[in-house]
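Quick look at the format.
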Amino acid sequence: PDDCPDNDHHNVDTIDGLILPTITALSVAAWGGGEEMRAECGDGASMTARVTRRSQVLESVSKVWGEVIFDVLRSDDQEGGDSGTILNEAAEKIGMRRVRDSGRDEMSACYLQ
């Protein structure tokens, strides 16, 4: 425990909220395609978030994130699988603006400045 990082309730939660549901989604997506597996991918990512963090927002976003992972990995198996379409559909589901495919990378820029 002395060598473990403290939980600052921001960075640690954020990283756990990204990594753990991603691992679940990757493992489910590896099993195969189809809408049933896509739903399982999202549900599995959401359940992972639920048991590791107390955040309704994280649960709902993890569900969408799991579907994004599935769609990207299985894009050859389905129609409409280009990354722009996948990301824009996900952004819409969680109430964010459409992804801009040109211009400045705002997320990276906030950490690099």
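Next, a different chain entirely:
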Amino acid sequence: SSDGEKSNSRKQITVPANGNSKAFHNLLQRLRESTSDSTNLKLVGKDGMLTQQVLRMLCEALKKNTDIRRLDLEGAGFEDDGCVVVADMLAQNRTLRELDVQGCGIGQRGCRALVDALLTRGKGLR
């Protein structure tokens, strides 16, 4: 790819439960600076689950990110509380186009938070 182009390949990061890994912190920095080398991110918790702490750090970094187009959190198990964190990010991020939250244990409150965020954002997702 030429200078300035982002790869569509998926970057998968496995994160320890407490988020304490050099790879994760480097990723957060690149997300904050919108200097990620990929537009497609899959985040996997060490045991399949992402803690609220890790999810908050990720979503905070993604609020103003302009690189990531697809975020895959499938199976992260963060339930409604985590979904509220994701929804807050979605309301502010204007470039994310696809979000996978299958298997995250999202109930009615989490779904409502996502719908409200999408309405605020004025753009849908796939």
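The mean pLDDT is 86.

See the schema section for token definitions.
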